[in-house]
Amino acid sequence: MREPNDLSAFWMPFSNNRGFKQAPRLLAAAEGMHYTSSDGRSILDATAGLWCVNAGHCRTQIVEAIRETAARFDFGPTFQLGHPLAFELASKLGMIMPEGLDRIFFTNSGSESVDTALKIALAYQRARGQGSRTRFIGRERGYHGVGFGGISVGGIVGNRRQYGTMLGGVDHLRHTHDLARNAFSRGQPAHGAELAEDIERLVALHGADTIAAVIVEPVAGSTGVLVPPVGYLERVRELCKKHDILLIFDEVITAFGRVGKATASERFGVTPDIITMAKGLTNAAVPMGAVAAGRHVYDTVVENAPEGIELFHGYTYSGHPLAAAAGLATLAIYEEERLFEKAITLEAYWADAVHAMKDLPHVIDCRNIGLVAGIEMEARAGAPTKRAMEAFHRAFDSGLLIRVTGDIIALSPPLILEKTHIDEMFGRLADILKAID
Ligand SMILES: Cc1ncc(COP(=O)(O)O)c(C=O)c1O
Predict the structure, then answer these.
(1) CA–CA gap between residue 414 and residue 418 (Å, rounded)
(2) What kind and span of H or E run contains 14?
(3) Whole-angstrom Cα distance, residue 371 to residue 35?
(4) Where does the signal peptide begin and end (predicted)?
(5) Is the CB of residue 143 below 6 angstroms from any atom belonging to ligand 1?
(6) Domains of the chain listed by start with CATH number
(7) 375 with 183: CB under 8 angstroms?
């Protein structure tokens, strides 16, 4: 006999299904900086859900925009048709992107944004008569979602090994994580810009005329907050330009104020050819992603194409009215409350709190940028990830939501947080680190 509240039917993503279902931890509601668990406890959200609820939970303006739109205009196709909400959001989004990256393609997630960006890169190369450029260069420890394109350019073995040969013609740069030289860096680490020279190595190996694009996260999030070394992104940009290779920044977590500007590109002063986004775009209230392409990319693919459909790609829900309405309301909040600047105004206070964890048991690195922190713990001998998982469970049970990846604690709170929340987060975290063995 099935029970309506049976936990067995939902095959949970990126989860230890068996472990969870034996000891479920359920969220029931959310508001502002907090979740409420199903047993009625208030849980301070130190991760903005999954790096996505940048304006805090259940914002009235967003809820009302969704409600009003759902009642008036539930769905409208965007294949050979359109509706004003999608055009308006694209225009607004284009205005906050770096100069020139104002041609917007809508998707429904970060993974779809990545695969869309890769396809746009291939279409661009072909349209300009460089059809031999089909190769992609990703980076070790990169996370670009879970589509076949994304896992192929991504660099996380756990996400790849179950899935065969994936996309052909992909190579990887080395990652920039270097505890020997950079442990406990505040902000951008000093060492590692030279790792960008891997592009030269791969160009020498494969030939520039076979490479369509390089894709990197400006700050790698999912593998534990890897902040770009000083000068690294600049050098990546230079080398892509030198070899006429497109540069894609995957900004699914860094866009929308996470590092103190609309995009990490703006924060670091390095402009790619294509930016992928999702998460903070709608404050996660309705799934939506987007790709911002440079005018040169759009014009090459679209303006120079023969009459008819220019790019054979799109999703039924590209530019969905509810997502577009949520996106517009979200961008309005970011602007009204100047939330993008929040990560700059609070950055020093946040960094002090992060680096105060330095001498706690097990901690081998603390790193930060904007309102992001990575606290790396030494793995238990023979039991990697177990210590971090214990920290996660203890945190949840004590009323704090953190995120763990490997043996790294990653923090990325909603941008509405106040100093008192920072004190509370790190006070609790310190207690947890002292309590675990
Ligand atoms: C950099 C990056 N790219 C892509 C994705 C995939 O996004 P989604 O889970 O919405 O498909 C993520 C998700 O965390 C991400 O951090």
Answers:
(1) 10
(2) none
(3) 19
(4) none
(5) yes
(6) 17-55+339-435 (3.90.1150.10), 64-336 (3.40.640.10)
(7) no
The first and second tokens of residue 131, run together, are 């059809």
Task: Report which ligand 1 atom has the smallest distance to the Cα of 150.
Answer: 4
Cα–ligand 1 centroid distance for 303 (angstroms): 30
Q: Which of 50, 51, 52, 111 is the best mutation target for the ligand 1 pocket, counting ligand atoms within 8 Å of the beta carbon and taking the most? A: 111
3-state DSSP call for residue 6?
coil
Q: Is 249 in the pocket of ligand 1 (CB under 6 A)?
A: no
Residue 217, ligand 1, Cβ within 6 A: yes
What spacing in Å lies between the alpha carbon of 242 and ligand 1's midpoint? 29
Nearest residue to 237 via CA among 273, 207, 261, 204 = 273
Measured from the CB, is residue 412 less than 6 Å from ligand 1? no
Which helix H or strand E contains 182, and what residues bound it? helix 179-182
Cα-based distances in Å from 76 to 53, 101, 113, 286 = 26, 26, 20, 16
pLDDT in tens, 146-188: 999 999 999 999 999 999 999 999 999 999 999 999 999 999 9
Residues in the chain: 437
Distance CA 65, CA 381 (A): 51
Q: Which residue CA neighbors atom 8 of ligand 1 most closely?
A: 110
pTM: 0.98
